[in-house]
Design brief:
With 188 residues, the protein is α+β, with helices and mostly antiparallel strands. The chain folds into 2 domains: 14-55; 63-185, no CATH class. Helices cover 37% and strands 22% of the residues. The chain has helices at 13-49, 92-104, 130-133, 139-154; strands at residues 63-71, 77-85, 113-119, 122-127, 161-166, 169-170, 184-185. Strands 3, 4, 5, 6 and 7 form a 5-stranded mixed beta sheet that branches. Helix 2 packs antiparallel against helix 4. The relative contact order is 0.12.
């Protein structure tokens, strides 16, 4: 029997080069994929292990601007501003509003500030019962008193609203003219 020669398939040189290049590109893409995956995993691990930044509590104010109402001869109200330096940062809100009571001239006789507390942007001012019991002014005086409180509060950092309390309890109104049963927005 005669030997049959098998025909070998020969691929041409350029075709082999193209296949080799394709394999090389596939290999490089595979390596690149592995590197990207490793970097992504490393970043994920790093983010998980890195503690979240701690939020510092708001710093008490070092100074404030008292808003003091003044009535002219015609009964029109005008507001004056007076800067005050806070001497005791731990009791800053109490100190500022105690000074406002002394200097504003619209707070009823004997009114005292029992406490001042900032919670979630709301400054709760707890006054003694004299604020309501001794108030004898009309709507202008009550509005001036409330404006003095909210405008002074606006000069303090992190204060967005003011809630007026008497002996620790919410009140409807100071003199029966203006509703203060809800927290009031501060007004510059």
């Amino acid at each position: 029997m005669a030997k049959r020669k098998r025909k070998r398939r020969h691929t041409s040189q350029p075709a082999r080069r193209k296949m080799n290049e394709a394999r090389r590109v596939q290999g490089l893409l595979g390596v690149l994929f592995v590197i990207v995956a490793a970097v992504a995993i490393a970043i994920g691990v790093w983010l998980r292990l890195t503690p979240a930044p701690t939020l510092l509590p708001p710093q008490p104010p070092r100074e404030a601007k008292l808003t003091i109402p003044k009535f002219d001869a015609q009964g029109e109200v005008h507001y004056e501003s007076q800067r005050v330096v806070v001497r005791n940062p731990d009791a800053a809100y109490h100190e500022v509003f105690t000074q406002l009571i002394r200097q504003a001239g619209v707070f009823p006789e004997g009114t005292r500030l029992l406490s001042a507390t900032l919670r979630d942007g709301t400054l709760e001012l707890n006054f003694s019962q004299e604020l309501v019991n001794n108030f004898s002014g009309g709507v202008s005086q009550e509005t001036a008193l409330i404006n003095a409180i909210t405008s002074t509060a606006a000069s303090l950092p992190n204060v967005q609203r003011v809630r007026i309390l008497v002996d620790g309890k919410p009140i409807e109104s100071i003199g029966g003219h203006v509703d203060v049963s809800q927290a009031l927005p501060v007004s510059p």
